[in-house]
Amino acid sequence: MSRSLWPRWARLSQVERVEAYTRQSLLVLLYGTPVFLLLSGSDRIADGGGALAVVLGASLVVTLVAARALRAVMDLYPAAAPVPWRPVGALLAVAVVSTGACIALPEGPGRVLGLTTWGVTVIALVGLTDRRIAAAVVVGATLVPTVLTGRAWVALVALGTTLFFVFTVRASLWLLGVVVEVDRSRTAQGELAVAEERLRFSRDVHDVLGRHLSAIAVQAELAATLAERGDERAAARMLEVREHAHDALREARELARGYRDTSLERELDGARSLLQAAGIATSVDTTGLDPAWHEAAGWVVRESVTNVLRHSRATLVTIRWTDDGVVEVRNDGVTAPPGSRGSDGRGLVGLRERLAALGATLHAERDGSEFVVRVDLPTGGAA
């Protein structure tokens, strides 16, 4: 038996072991209580003659019904589920009937049966989330022994024993609920971390490949135009297309391995190269930008330049950092109507979310004859 139990126990997680230990401990307490009371009161039961069979039979029935109710109560934790009325109601009904039998029996057997009945009832029901029922059970477990014996000091003993059962059961179930909730929180945190990593990876893929593919499209179109004219420069343009394809492949591999970090200097160099290849002049001034914001500024440059290549007819792109904490990318190839804030494509939406997580705010809108992507950076570095 022990050999079959050990592999099963070894396969359980730590939380499942805590749950199994708590459940079995409370069941042992429930089954052990009537055994202890019956053994300690065996002389009183023997003196009752035919009452022995009644006490043993009633105790067995009450204990089995209480065990079923206790299992139902333990299933409530940690969720505040509705009261399982069927097992709870069955136990309360059996307890009332058993109490009536206690009154009909001689004093000795009746006292033992009363203590057994309300002892297991308290253990089974004090864990209920409905405290009114739990309180009623505690009152009953205190009053019944007092009434059966007719002695005031018994009330104190019964109350102390009942409170011990209340503390033991509720503390055990509370601890079980805390352990389960902590485990669920850790699981949720792990799933959230995986989701965030997937989102980060998808954004990086969009940023890296989007920029290179935009450049490849521009260069290929230019090469095709030159080839139609018989211009020898078409071959040079195709070599640039090949170079961009190799760069995209290399960066995609680095991204997959998790080695690629965003560098503002590299992004600025890449932006100059791409814009120059597309015949677009650049003006860059990021002097004084806090190094803590270099990575975020690199995101802004990468996405803005990609959008210029895809959507605008710009001849000049200006990238600058202002003393009031603003990174700004302007281009003079406006295609949006006056007053428009621009269409927030997936790239800008993702960029806005990434910056918001750092405490920065992104604005994309038309400003006169220019389209501006502006990012307000908080002081003190990235959050």
UniProtKB/TrEMBL annotation:
Keywords: Kinase, Membrane, Transferase, Transmembrane, Transmembrane helix, Two-component regulatory system. It comes from the Bacteria. GO terms for molecular function: phosphorelay sensor kinase activity; protein dimerization activity. One of its GO terms (cellular component) is membrane. The chain crosses the membrane at residues 21-39, 45-67, 88-106, 112-128, 135-156, 162-180. InterPro entries: HATPase_C_sf, Sensor_HK_TwoCompSys, Sig_transdc_His_kin_sub3_dim/P. This is Sensor histidine kinase. It comes from Nocardioides flavescens.
